[in-house]
Amino acid sequence: MNVNIDPSWKTRLQPEFEKPYFQQLANFVKQEYRSHTCYPKGKDIFAAFDHCPFHETKVVIIGQDPYHGPNQANGLCFSVKDGVPHPPSLVNIFKEIKVDVGVPYPKSGNLERWADQGVLLLNAVLTVRAHQAGSHQNKGWETFTDAVIQSISEHLEGVVFLLWGGFAKKKSRLIDQRKHHILTSGHPSPLSANRGLWFGNQHFSKTNELLERMGKEKINW
């Protein structure tokens, strides 16, 4: 796997690419993509970084692993390609945005428009085998993406981290809360949302309030 990633991140993460675990991970991913259908496409594995350069990162949203259905995953957590039906979690995200900040429910579920404004849409695991959720977990991706979160925490200031659900909340241990802001809630999946743990969290307006207070440009959700 050639690590073709935005130069601002490459400089920052080069030590990770040289570690033994990453070499093993790269070999595993290459083999999987050769032998099976995997998502996202190879060129999109690092898309979250390519759309959101390191020093422009203002907000981080953490997902678990990519969508595993055809044509869904585009390298950004919760995001799907243009023209693809919106998965249930994304539907609930857009519903909350509509109520919270008044942005109409969008036609496209492609969140590149957020990433281009400084929202890093980071899955903990960046690849998956088709129709097998979690199939690339515990192969090294989590070590890599934890290093990403730690690097942001260490070298940037005033980043807003949105941690949705138990899995994402565990990442708070990697974040210096004296320098950054953490907003937590239930996951937008129907299971959690229907139990009243997602709707009404107002994370989108709260994020913009925090950014504005720090003199940063708000996100157009």
From TrEMBL:
Annotated localization: Cytoplasm
Major localization class: cytoplasm
Group of enzyme by EC: hydrolase
Domain Uracil-DNA glycosylase-like per the UniProt entry, residue ranges: 50-211
EC number: 3.2.2.27
SMART domains registered for this protein in UniProt: UDG, UreE_C
GO CC, alphabetical: cytoplasm
Biological process per Gene Ontology, one example term: base-excision repair, AP site formation via deaminated base removal
Catalytic reactions on record: Hydrolyzes single-stranded DNA or mismatched double-stranded DNA and polynucleotides, releasing free uracil
Catalytic residues in the record: 65 (proton acceptor)
GO molecular function: uracil DNA N-glycosylase activity
Cleaved signal peptide residues: none
Top-level taxon of origin: Bacteria
SUPFAM superfamilies, alphabetized: Uracil-DNA glycosylase-like
Keywords linked to the UniProt accession: Cytoplasm, DNA damage, DNA repair, Hydrolase
Gene3D superfamilies, per the entry: Uracil-DNA glycosylase-like domain
Functional description taken from the UniProt entry: Excises uracil residues from the DNA which can arise as a result of misincorporation of dUMP residues by DNA polymerase or due to deamination of cytosine.
Homology family: Belongs to the uracil-DNA glycosylase (UDG) superfamily. UNG family.
Protein name: Uracil-DNA glycosylase
Organism this protein belongs to: Flagellimonas lutaonensis
